[in-house]
Amino acid sequence: MALEEIKPEFRASIIDRCQDENPIGDGIQCPHCGALEAYKNRENPGDTTKWSWMVRAFKIDDYSHCRNCDKWFGL
Questions:
Q1: What is the pTM of this model?
Q2: Which of 15, 38, 57, 64 is the most exposed place for a label (fewest CB within 10 A)?
Q3: In whole angstroms, how far apart are CA 50 and each of 27, 63, 75?
Q4: What gap in Å lies between CA 5 and CA 11, rounded to an integer?
């Protein structure tokens, strides 16, 4: 998913945490809006303190919640 499709308030948070407008995005993907689970700093993708989480995976049973579109989905 292109970062431009993330809501502005979340996009600003991702850019701030990842210190770049082109972070690494990976993990499960929201079937509603296409947001990826996590965005990471390209220079140090292993530093989990700088990750920005968009999908709260498996919060209830096998369902996940997307912060971008505020919808629930199952895998």
A1: 0.85
A2: 57
A3: 16, 25, 26
A4: 9
